[in-house]
């Protein structure tokens, strides 16, 4: 049994190794985006100054962008700019891409966080119940629910939810993040409207923001729930077939303790990894959800950037999403080492 000090040292040592891996992976991501930016058939000069600009203006911008320099020098400058958060200006908004990302990412973070909480709080227990009742009706119900979460198109289900709960029943607010009447009533502090409204003590804005959030967050939560419950069921079935489970049952341990205390405890490392990955997928995959609900987040921003051939915005968003995935993987690595001392 390791002492707490030795365990913390081991975790710190492994975390340092993870930090190096994260740095190298981020460098690889930056290289890929640099290469893609040079290979796609979009002239960055034309995108910046327009097609009808005179040749003198074209040549001047060409030099300002550093495109007349060797490729290795261009990449070195590109890395330096990315490290300092300089992704250039967005053609679509006219603002620095970093400012755009800082303004839209909290909206996506808001939806994804609620979605992953739904996925964890509902999906993990459902997966455990399904595994404990393998082959019986609770298992079949959970499997059908998981399959439905994967099979039903996001775009179609989002429209159906809007038609029923907003159009017909009028139980929740419609598309957008907040009604126009409430827009700008609270100061932006965190970028998350519900939190900013609570901080300002404005319950009307809070209720309106929450009402707008319910449908898109529930939709993301459904897909997160489907993935997490299916994977939890698989991990639990593996654990329930192990010899230590048979031994625990032979000793007279209650079935509830066998499932929730022993099997789930040994499956938690894999479940933690899946939850972090699911969170990353929600942050990345909210494009269709944000489009259907006109949610002004990263997904809608990148969709508009793609339609407008806004290369700087697309690359900036891609780097942000990639960095989030890398950091979530590294964080999951640290968390499950704390959760299970055997991995440290």
UniProtKB/TrEMBL annotation:
What keywords appear on the UniProt entry? Cell membrane, Membrane, Transmembrane, Transmembrane helix, Transport
Q: Where are the transmembrane segments?
A: 12-36, 111-132, 144-166, 209-228, 271-293, 313-336
Molecular-function GO terms, alphabetical: dipeptide transmembrane transporter activity
Cellular compartment(s): Cell membrane
Q: What is its main location?
A: membrane
Regarding the membrane, this protein is recorded as: Multi-pass membrane protein
- Ranges for the ABC transmembrane type-1 domain? 105-332
Cell membrane among the record's keywords? yes
rRNA-binding among keywords: no
The record ties this protein, via PROSITE patterns, to: ABC_TM1
Its GO CC terms?
plasma membrane
Record-linked SUPFAM superfamilies: MetI-like (SSF161098)
Q: What protein family is recorded?
A: Belongs to the binding-protein-dependent transport system permease family.
Q: What is this protein called?
A: Peptide ABC transporter permease
